[in-house]
Design a protein that fits this description.
alpha+beta, eight-stranded mixed sheet, 9 helices, 3 domains, four-stranded antiparallel sheet, FAD/NAD(P)-binding domain, D-Amino Acid Oxidase, Chain A, domain 2
């Protein structure tokens, strides 16, 4: 049986969209790659994060806020259906600062963004004394923090498992070891995989992360995305040390402290380096000196997906009507929006969110 939608890419982005479409009664097929595929969904930091996003594009801030607001209900519905607790905590997150100068500069940027959002940007500035009251283990080098109340974190692997399980429960097909090599369109789309198999669908969504670099142009997209490496460390399981996450460190639901991440332009190299890991460890110890005695149990590198301006790309192909590119850097943060609101855009309903600023028209590709 043909599908209404074939989704190329079985990570958090693709599965979130699949889940949302299935909830609307659509027939959905997800094609996931092999174990050699670069998988941001298995290597990310697990943040549901609003602050600092959209400084130069308020629509991105608003889109992130809309998703963050929908996250609790999204997580509850998945948990009720699958029995998996994704350990969502959404009591705010910190932007830690080691100098008064950077803190004041960031606050000024936030105030400008807040004005553009009609005041809807719930944050407060904590001086060192106020921060210590919230985080007793904070180090003496930290002068203060910005606490944004819409921020939080989640266990990304449990999210991925929950989405995959519920997509199948809802009647979706998820086919693994399917590397798509070509997509053609006549009356319907015919998708060819490297193993010689073919599937058909009325519409196609390309959400294959870095795989869109090669496949995107075949569907008429510019797909001007690139990889950026992030190295991450995780400690042994520890007693409760950190109450809220930051971009430097977060204590995960199982007790370990996750430290990261680097921002490296190294092509498709997802390895780790001594210099990168040492830099992360040094900053984490400066923020939380108690971590100096913690044992590291795991390190990894993963590749982010970035557009030239760092914003998501939502685009229907100008050459193949019914083919859509959905790609972003913040797949965890935007998972709720992709599940709850993006299906209206994909189907062109009256409730479709305005995503025009995220189209490929903003890029000039020579």
């Amino acid at each position: 049986m043909d599908s209404d939608f074939a989704i190329i890419g079985g990570g958090v982005v693709g599965l979130s969209v699949a889940w949302g479409l299935l909830k609307r009664g659509k027939r959905v097929l997800v094609l996931d790659g092999d174990d050699g595929s670069f998988r941001a969904s298995r290597g990310n930091f697990g943040l549901v994060w609003v602050q600092s996003k959209g400084i130069k594009q308020p629509r991105y801030a608003a889109w992130s806020q809309q998703s963050a607001t929908a996250w609790a209900g999204f997580a509850d519905e998945l948990a009720d259906a699958t029995g998996h607790d994704m350990s969502l905590e959404q009591t705010g997150g910190y932007d830690l600062h080691f100098s008064e100068e950077t803190l004041k500069k960031t606050v000024a940027q936030y105030e400008e963004l807040k004005a553009k959002l009609d005041g809807n940007y719930p944050y407060e500035v904590l001086d060192r004394k106020a921060l210590l009251a919230e985080e007793p283990e904070i180090g003496p080098k930290v002068v203060g923090a910005i606490l944004h109340h819409q921020d939080g974190h989640v266990n990304p692997l449990k999210l991925l498992r929950s989405l995959a399980d519920d997509v199948r429960r809802l009647g979706g097909q998820v086919l693994s070891e399917k590397t798509v090599t070509d997509v053609r369109k006549s009356d319907v789309f015919t998708i060819t995989c490297a193993d010689g198999s073919h599937v058909q669908a009325n519409k196609v969504i390309l959400s294959a992360g870095l795989g869109a670099m090669e496949l995107g142009p075949k569907l008429g997209f510019k797909a001007p995305i690139r990889p950026q490496r992030g190295q991450v460390l995780i400690t042994e399981k520890l007693p409760k040390l950190i109450n809220r996450p930051s971009l430097i460190a977060r204590q995960v639901d199982e007790g370990g402290v996750q430290i990261g991440a680097t921002n490296e332009e190294v092509g498709l190299n997802d390895g780790v380096t001594q210099s990168g890991l040492s830099g992360l460890a040094s900053e984490a110890v400066a923020a939380y000196p108690v971590l100096a005695d913690a044992q590291l149990v795991r390190v990894w590198g993963a590749l982010r997906i970035l557009s030239p301006d760092g914003l998501p790309i939502y685009q229907e192909s100008p050459e193949m009507a019914g083919a859509f590119l959905v790609t972003c850097h913040s797949g965890i943060t935007l998972a709720a929006a992709h599940a709850r609101f993006l299906p209206d855009w994909l189907e062109g309903t009256n409730a479709a969110p305005d995503l025009e600023v995220f189209s490929e028209d903003r890029f000039i590709v020579s």
